Amino acid sequence: MALIVQKYGGTSVANPERIKALASRVARYKALGHQVVVVVSAMSGETNRLIALARELMPDPDPRELDVVVSTGEQVTIGLTAMALMDLGIKAKSYTGSQVRIVTNSAFTKARILHIDDAKIRADLNSGHVVVVAGFQGVDEHGNITTLGRGGSDTTGVALAAALKADECQIYTDVDGVYTTDPRIVPEARRLKSITFEEMLELASQGSKVLQIRSVEFAGKYQVKLRVLSSFEEEGDGTLITFEEEDNMEQPIISGIAFNRDEAKVTVLGVPDRPGIAYQILGPIADANIDVDIIIQNTGADGTTDFTFTVHKNELNKALDILRNIQAHIGAREIAGDDKIAKVSIVGVGMRSHVGVASQMFRTLAEEGINIQMISTSEIKIAVVIEEKYMELAVRVLHKAFELEEA
Ligand code: ADP
Ligand code: ASP
Ligand code: MG
Predict the structure, then answer these.
(1) Measured from the CB, is residue 35 less than 6 Å from ligand 1?
(2) What are the chain's domains?
C-alpha cells in the first residue's frame, strides 16, 4: 500500500465528464489498496474569469480581497470531486486550504507555505477516505485567505506530498509529461522520460509553466518523488523528475527550452557611476516587494552608467513610479520601460561539460536577425532577452539547432 498525492490541473477538472474521469482513476488506485490525496485546481478559465471580474470593480484589485475572490474557483472543484467519488461508492471528504490549515505568510497573491497541519488528512486517510484538497490556497496566521501565485496548485500538491511523506506525487495535466519545450509552440517537441530536478528547476524558473517553480523547490528540498502525467490517457509513465544525473554518454547538451513573456525591462539611463548606485536603484524596488530578474550595468566613457533590469510586467508601472520619484536624487538622465520583450532560455546539465553552447545559441539567433538585448547565464542555463515578436521563432530555431526533436 502506498500513499499517493494526485494533483489535477484546470483542464483535468474542466467539466463534469473530466471530474468523473478523475474519480475513476482514483477508484482504480483505491482498488489497488493505495491511500489517495487529491489536489484540484479551479476549472480551466475560472481563475482568469474571477480576476477579470475583480478588475471590473477595482482596476488594481486589493490583494487581500483578490485572494478571497480567486480562491473560490478551487472551492467549487473540491466539492464536486468529492461528490463524484462518493457517487462511485468511495468515501471522500473535501477541504479548503484554510480547513486543512495550510499556513502561509501574508504575501497575498504570492504567499509562501510555512507549515501544513496534516492531522485531519491523516485521520481521514486512516478511516478509508480519499481526501480532496483545494490547490492554490492557504491561510495566514491571522486567518486571512491567501493564494500561492498562478499555477500554485502544483505547489499545494508537492507540499502536501512532502508533509505526508507520500510515496509519490503525480501531477496530472493536459500533456503527457515534460517536453523539450512547450509542444503548443513547437509541435516537434519530444517528451522526456526523465529530467533532473536541477533542470526542471531552471525550466520552471525560466517560465515553463508545466510545473510552478515553488513545487519543484519543494520536491528538491523534501526529495518528493514527482511525476508529470496526462489525465487524458489511462496509460503512460509521463516524466519522472530525478535527483541523480544519469551517467549517460548520450546525455544531450540541452534538455529543454523555456520562454517567458511575463517580464518587462526597466532602464535607468545616465546615472553617475559611483559606489552605492545599484543599491540606490534596487533598494526601493526591493522595499516595494518587486522581484527583479536579470540585471545589467554598462558604464560609458563619460563616467555615467546605464542600469537595466527586468521585473514582472504587472509590476512595471509600480517600478517606474518608484524610480521617477528618486530620479532627481540619483541624478538619472532618463527612466524608460519596455514591456514588449520576451526571455528565451536553453537549459541542460550537459552544458557543464561542453564549450561553445552560448556561441551556438547566439549564432542561431543572429542567423535569423534576432537581436539579443540582455544575457544571463548559470552553470546549466543561458537566457536571452529579445523583442517579444521574435519569441516563437527563436524557440523554434533553437529547438532545431540543438537537435531536440531527435531522440
Ligand atoms: P494545469 O492546468 O494542468 O496545471 P498548465 O497549463 O499549468 O496545466 O501546464 C500545462 C501546459 O504547460 C501544457 O499544456 C503546455 O502547453 C505547457 N508547457 C510549457 N512548457 C512545457 C514543457 N516543457 N513540457 C510540457 N508542457 C509545457
Ligand atoms: N487556479 C489557479 C490558476 O489558474 C491555480 C492552478 O491552476 O494551479 O493559476
Ligand atoms: Mg498549472
Answers:
(1) no
(2) 3-174 (3.40.1160.10)
